[in-house]
Amino acid sequence: MKTKVFFNDFNSIESELYRLYSQFSQARYSSLLSRLNIWHPPIDVYEMEKVMVIKMEIAGLKDEDLSIQANGKYLTIQGIREEHIPPACPTYHNMELNFGPFERNILLPDRFCENEIKATYKNGFLLITISITESKSEALTIDID
User: Is residue 130 within 8 Å of residue 119, measured between CB atoms?
Assistant: First the structure.
């Protein structure tokens, strides 16, 4: 049995999806939607001998556009990538690049050295190295009274 695909149907599906999204975006869950607008740059997290490495792909930023904070068990990387729109309104044929604010939270191992975190940004990649101690935290036994 052959199935015919009518391209005009795709236009109506696309307009219906746009209508539904528009209604949803005007819903009372605006704080949730603003959270969904934050993009998440891809990262690699790996461990080598005595160091944990976090590599993030974030081309097109300046150092001052980035913020890195270690709080407790998490390393938070935040920033914003500004969109540079040409003066004339372009017609896009494909649009995959993300712009705007971003945030990533990475769970740190228990044995990381808080004072030995280094970051470099070069050729569109942020590279963070975190020293790790060899001794793992031992389980604490708690007596019950």
Answer: no
d(CA 2, CA 104): 47
Which residues in the chain belong to E strands, given as ranges?
43-48, 51-57, 66-71, 74-81, 100-107, 112-122, 125-132
Dig out the tokens for 129 from the structure. Answer: 């190295």
Architecture of the structural domain at 7-85+98-132: Sandwich (2.60)
**pLDDT tens for each residue of 75-84:** 999 999 988 7
* SS3 of residue 52 by DSSP: strand
**Is 20 in a helix, a strand, or coil?**
helix
pTM given for the model: 0.66
129 in Cβ contact with 48 (< 8 Å) = no
Distance from C-alpha of 20 to C-alpha of 16, rounded to nearest angstrom: 6
**pLDDT under 50 in the chain at which residues?**
33
Q: Could you tell me the two tokens for 29?
A: 């869950």
